[in-house]
Q: What sequence folds into this?
C-alpha cells in the first residue's frame, strides 16, 4: 500500500508510460455486441459495404471482436503527446469540502483546445483517412465538440473537413462554429439544401432546427457522393470506444503506479464513448474474473436511453441511411425537449456499452439537469475547473456517492471521468444562474412515440 499522503494532487504519467496499444474490450466479452445490419437486407454489414462509408482500417477495427490489443501507430502517439498524458487528479479540495471519507479521483480530458476527450478518436480517424490517401472527411456535430476536435486533427494532417452542424447550435453557438472554421473546416447548418436527405427533411418539416440524427444522414450522403471522402463519427461506434480506451488505460496505469484500488468508476453517457473508454480496462478485469468494480453510467433524465430505453435494433440517424445498430434506444425519432441544455442528447447508446449494461456488468442512473448544474457550480468553486455540462452528470453522481460514504463512514475510492470544460456552454450556465433552468422528464407516452418508430427486426 502506498502511503496516503504521498498521492499528489495530480498524477501525470511520463510520456514513456503512455499506452502503446488500445484495448479492445470486445475481445474479453463473452456476449459480443450485436453486428451492424444493412437496413435493406437486415444482414450483417460486410467489410466491403462498410468500406463505402468508412475508411478501410477503421472498418477492420469496427468488426474486430477478438484482438485484445491494437497498436497505436507512432504518428498518433506523437499527436497524443501534444495534450496527453492527461492528469488523474485527486480531488482533495472536493473531499475536504464534502467532509467525506471517500477518496475521489477524476481523469481530466479537457486540457486541449477542443476541450474534451473527443480528440482521442478524431486524430485516429483522421490518420487512417490520410493513410488511405483520401482528400477529406465529413461528419456531423451537435454542440460542436466533436466537430472542433475533428477540425484540429484534420488541420494537423492536411485533410479537408466538412462538418454538418445541427442548425439550432449553428445559430446559437457561434463560438465553436468559428473555432472549427479557424482550424479550416467548412461548417454547414443542418438540415441543409446541399444534400438530398436534407432537402427531403426540410420539405417534410419546414422550419426544423435540426437534430443529430438529421446531421448524420447529411454527412453520410456528403461522404458517399464525393470522390475521395469518407464519413467519420465521434461516438457510439466500436472503433471510437477502442480509441477512447486510452483514457481508461492511462487511468489504470496511474492508479497502479500509486497502488490505488478503485471501488466505483463513474462516467457520463451520451453515445457512450468516454464511458466505454474509461471503463474498458476495469470491465476487462471484471470479465476475466481478476477484480470487481461498481461501474455507473450517468445519463440525463430528459434523454434516458439506458434507464428507460429498449434494447433493440434501431436506426442510428433520422434519414435511415445508416446501418442498424442493436442498442438501448429511445427510437431514432426521439428528440429531447428543447429546454434540455446539458448535452448527451443522442437517442441511442453504443452497442458495447448497451451489451455490458444488458449483461449486468455496469449500472446506469439518470439525473435531472438542475441537479447537474448544481453539482457543476459546486465543483467549479471547489476544484477550480469549469466543467462541461456533460461531464457534470458524472460529477453529480460522484458527489452523491461520496455523500453516501459520509453517512456510512466507508472510505470508498471513487474515480470519475471529467470529460471536458464548459467555456462554450455559458448560455446554459446563464440560464442556471438566472434560476431559469427547469427539468423536463419525458412521460411514458412521449417515449412510446419514439418506440413506435423502431424497425421490425427479429
Ligand atoms: C461529446 C461529449 C460527451 C458525450 O459523448 P460520449 O460519446 O458519451 O462520451 C461527454 N462529455 C463531453 C465534454 C463531450 O464533449
A:
Amino acid at each position: 500500500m502506498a502511503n496516503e499522503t504521498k498521492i499528489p494532487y495530480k498524477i501525470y504519467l511520463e510520456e514513456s508510460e503512455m499506452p502503446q496499444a488500445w484495448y479492445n474490450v470486445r475481445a474479453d466479452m463473452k456476449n459480443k455486441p450485436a453486428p451492424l445490419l444493412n437496413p435493406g437486407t437486415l444482414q450483417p454489414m460486410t467489410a466491403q459495404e462498410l468500406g463505402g462509408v468508412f475508411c478501410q482500417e477503421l472498418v477492420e477495427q469496427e468488426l474486430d471482436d477478438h484482438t485484445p490489443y491494437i497498436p497505436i501507430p507512432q504518428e498518433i502517439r506523437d499527436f497524443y503527446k501534444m495534450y496527453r498524458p492527461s492528469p488523474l487528479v485527486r480531488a482533495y479540495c472536493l473531499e475536504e469540502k464534502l467532509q467525506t471519507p471517500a477518496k475521489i479521483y477524476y481523469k481530466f480530458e479537457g486540457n486541449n483546445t477542443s476541450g474534451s476527450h473527443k480528440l482521442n478518436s478524431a486524430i485516429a480517424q483522421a490518420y487512417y483517412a490520410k493513410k488511405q490517401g483520401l482528400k477529406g472527411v465529413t461528419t456531423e456535430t451537435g454542440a460542436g465538440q466533436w466537430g472542433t476536435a475533428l477540425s484540429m486533427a484534420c488541420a494537423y494532417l492536411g485533410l479537408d473537413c466538412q462538418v454538418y452542424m445541427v442548425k439550432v447550435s449553428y445559430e446559437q453557438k457561434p463560438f465553436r462554429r468559428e473555432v472549427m472554421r479557424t482550424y479550416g473546416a467548412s461548417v454547414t447548418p443542418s438540415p441543409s439544401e446541399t444534400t438530398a436527405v436534407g432537402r427531403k427533411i426540410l420539405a417534410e418539416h419546414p422550419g426544423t432546427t435540426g437534430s443529430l440524427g438529421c446531421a448524420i444522414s447529411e454527412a453520410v450522403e456528403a461522404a458517399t457522393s464525393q470522390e475521395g471522402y469518407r464519413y467519420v463519427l465521434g461516438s457510439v461506434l466500436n472503433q471510437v470506444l477502442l480509441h477512447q480506451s486510452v483514457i481508461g488505460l492511462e487511468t489504470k496505469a496511474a492508479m497502479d503506479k500509486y497502488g490505488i484500488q478503485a471501488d466505483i468508476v463513474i462516467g457520463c453517457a451520451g453515445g457512450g464513448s468516454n464511458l466505454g473508454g474509461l471503463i474498458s480496462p476495469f470491465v476487462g478485469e471484471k470479465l476475466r474474473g481478476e477484480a470487481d468494480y461498481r461501474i455507473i453510467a450517468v445519463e440525463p433524465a430528459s434523454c434516458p436511453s439506458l434507464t428507460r430505453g429498449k434494447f433493440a435494433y434501431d436506426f442510428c440517424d433520422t434519414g435511415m441511411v445508416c446501418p442498424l445498430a442493436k442498442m438501448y434506444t429511445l427510437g431514432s425519432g426521439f428528440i429531447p425537449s428543447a429546454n434540455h441544455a446539458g448535452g448527451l442528447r443522442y437517442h441511442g447508446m453504443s452497442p458495447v456499452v448497451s451489451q455490458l449494461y444488458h449483461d449486468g456488468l455496469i449500472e446506469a442512473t439518470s439525473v435531472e439537469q438542475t441537479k447537474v448544474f448544481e453539482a457543476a457550480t459546486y465543483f467549479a468553486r471547489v476544484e477550480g475547473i469549469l466543467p462541461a455540462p456533460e461531464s457534470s452528470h458524472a460529477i453529480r453522481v460522484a458527489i452523491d456517492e461520496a455523500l453516501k460514504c459520509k453517512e456510512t463512514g466507508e472510505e470508498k475510492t471513487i474515480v470519475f471521468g471529467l470529460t471536458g470544460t464548459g467555456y462554450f456552454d455559458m448560455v446554459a450556465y446563464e440560464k442556471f444562474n438566472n434560476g431559469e433552468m427547469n427539468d423536463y422528464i419525458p412521460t411514458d407516452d412521449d417515449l412510446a412515440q419514439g418506440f413506435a418508430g423502431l424497425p421490425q427486426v427479429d
